[in-house]
Design goal:
Elements (H helix, E strand, L loop, with lengths): L1 E3 L4 E3 L1 H8 L3 H11 L5 E2 L5 E4 H15 L4 H4 L4 H13 L14 H9 L3 H15 L1 H21 L5 H22 L7 E5 L8 H12 L3 E6 L4 H10 L4 E5 L6 H14 L5 E5 L13 E4 L2 H14 L2
Parallel strand pairs: 5-6, 5-7, 7-8, 8-9
Antiparallel strand pairs: 1-2, 2-4, 3-4
Helix pairs in contact: 3-5, 6-7, 7-8, 7-9, 8-9, 9-10
């Protein structure tokens, strides 16, 4: 709720978060790491943000959506941020296709069919620039994977074209992860796949979404033996182990691996399971949370922070 003093309006951290789209955890982390925002404190120690703080945070949020990294913009003044956004509005991204027509799934599919690697790469970069990283994941990258899969099943794309698209998309997402990864975020999530599971693009997408939501990400990679997952969870002191299961994974083997993880993971570590293949594993199991969308991941993060953060 906003509060009024004698001459200025102030906002609680929750209201500031709603107004700017920046999570309370990220606001606190930026305060420690970059020295902004530095809110006033009530006698009880609660943070109170000024109107100027919120306006500056809104510009920072817009800059991040435009592709800037936190270390490039969080500490900048209001005037500098305004200059950045004016320049961003005036300059069309050099990779934007068709003179501002915006990202297009149909266009990128045509590029895949034509084996135009540079064109695919430019289209992905343009989509990030136009949509921002989070909308890029939800509104472009995931629908692109679905469409490529459909075109492959219909016989319009070859296996090599499907693999090429996945690799180019993985490269783009890894670059975004490097820019947005929060090493000390909460909860800390270890991401991997079960033994003999080689598909890793889903892991990369989830890693980026978690990083954008202020979580700490530890990528173990695909095809991890169960003892390695358990030892990594303990050594890295993670709060959550996230497992991605593809449709190619045998359901019976996956069930056995999950049961073993439940027995051997530290009791405080939660187990989150997602991916298209996890739909066949959804049996009631205490200690396992099945997540099949980015919205479900957001809900799981919010619940963890509310009950355990």
């Amino acid at each position: 709720m906003a509060t009024k003093g004698t001459n200025k309006q102030q906002y609680s951290i929750r209201v500031a978060s709603r107004l700017t789209g920046i999570s309370p955890h990220t606001l606190r982390m930026w305060e420690r790491r970059y020295g902004f925002p530095v809110p006033e404190r009530t006698p009880g120690g609660a943070r109170r943000y000024s109107v100027e703080d919120v306006e500056r945070l809104k510009l920072i949020s817009r800059a991040l959506e435009a592709g800037y990294r936190p270390n490039e913009v969080v500490a900048k003044s209001l005037e500098s941020l305004e200059e950045i956004m004016v320049a961003q509005a005036e300059v069309l991204p050099p990779t934007a296709p068709d003179h501002g027509s915006g990202p297009s799934l149909d266009r990128i599919i045509r590029l895949v069919e034509d084996d135009d690697v540079e064109g695919i790469r430019n289209e992905l970069r343009a989509a990030v620039a136009v949509l921002g990283p989070k909308r890029f994941l939800n509104d472009f990258a995931h629908p692109l994977l679905v469409k490529v899969g459909e075109r492959w099943r219909e016989g319009h794309l070859s296996v090599r074209q499907e693999h090429l698209t996945s690799e180019l998309l993985t490269t783009q997402i890894r670059a975004l992860i490097a820019g947005y990864e929060v090493a000390q975020g909460a909860p800390t999530v270890l991401l991997t796949t079960l033994p003999d599971e080689l598909h890793s693009l889903g892991l990369q997408m989830v890693a980026l979404h978690l990083a954008l939501s202020g979580a700490g990400v530890r990528l173990l990679g695909p095809n991890a033996p169960i003892p390695d997952i358990v030892s990594a969870a303990a050594a890295l002191e993670v709060d959550v182990v996230g497992i991605s299961v593809s449709v190619a994974a045998p359901a019976s083997a996956s069930r056995g691996y999950i049961e073993t993880l439940l027995d051997e993971l530290p009791r405080k570590v939660e187990l989150w399971v997602g991916g298209d293949g996890s739909m066949d594993l959804m049996e009631p199991r205490k200690g396992v949370r099945f997540l099949h969308s980015f919205d479900a991941i957001e809900q799981a993060l919010a619940e963890w922070r509310r009950t355990r953060g």
